[in-house]
Design brief:
single chain, mainly alpha, 2 strands, two-stranded antiparallel sheet, 70% helix, globular
């Protein structure tokens, strides 16, 4: 247990380095590792090794990003892939048996958001040094503020359950605090990065609402699968999928918003 905790803490500098390094290669390597771990966890959740076949779809998704990722038709295709992945993950968890095809098609749940984060990084592969104002932060940092506010507000004021059948500990009061904190973080962060306050407001609303939907979606899939955590890689926190479930819902739509701004 102690060694796992030290490993998790030791990974933090590498994660931050991947985010802020001007070259996209560290982030790409990080995304590949996360993708592999989450695919393994989803395969366990859906009880189907066919999930790994969905990795082959990655080439098609990358092609979409290269050819049409920043034109309206391409943007809609990317979001469509993501929503399709959610649908097939849900259907696979529901069926529990004979779900190989659905499980294989569930992988966009993880693949698309990771590709969106790479796209949000937005720096040339020939760049060097550090970039501390990467738009990628707008898909991640507001969620951290929102989660922190939700914990404190939920403990102090939480009385009304948000979704008792899926996640009994979540409250409406905590959800409201989460949304407000996401906006409060996203607006100044957006201005600092170089976008307008309005864009920051949009990113904050996306993080505050869809981030919580992502958390509830994964909790529902786990409930259907009859497990508490997606994995045991992070002591006290479950699996990697448990830690990034909110980001998976936020990243595609922050990417979509900022793509239109560009």
């Amino acid at each position: 247990m102690k060694s796992r905790v030290l490993t998790a803490v030791g990974l933090i500098p590498f994660v931050l380095g991947a985010f802020f390094c001007a070259s996209p290669w560290p982030l790409l390597g990080f995304a590949v590792v996360v993708c592999a771990i989450c695919t393994w966890e989803i395969a366990n959740l859906l009880d189907s090794v066919a999930t790994w076949l969905g990795i082959l779809l990655l080439f098609g998704f990358i092609k979409t990003f290269q050819d049409q990722g920043h034109v309206p038709e391409g943007q809609l295709a990317v979001i469509g892939y993501f929503l399709g992945g959610l649908y097939f993950a849900f259907r696979s968890a529901q069926r529990k048996r004979n779900n190989s095809l659905f499980a294989a098609l569930a992988t966009p749940w993880v693949l698309i958001p990771l590709l969106c984060l790479i796209s949000l990084h937005g720096v040339s592969s020939t760049a060097s040094g550090w970039n501390f104002r990467t738009p990628l932060l707008l898909a991640v940092v507001p969620l951290w503020g929102g989660d922190t506010a939700a914990i404190f507000a939920g403990k102090a004021f939480g009385k009304h359950p948000l979704a008792p059948s899926i996640s009994p500990k979540k409250t409406i009061e905590g959800a409201v605090a989460n949304l407000l904190a996401c906006i409060a973080v996203a607006v100044p962060l957006s201005i600092w990065i170089g976008y307008s306050a309005t864009i920051g407001l949009g990113c904050g609303v996306i993080a505050g609402m869809l981030g919580q939907v992502g958390d509830l979606f994964e909790s529902y899939i786990k409930r259907l699968a009859g497990v508490k955590d997606s994995g045991r890689l992070l002591p006290g926190h479950g699996g990697v999928l448990d830690r990034i479930d909110s980001i998976l819902f936020t990243a595609p739509f922050v990417w979509l918003l900022l793509s239109f701004v560009k």
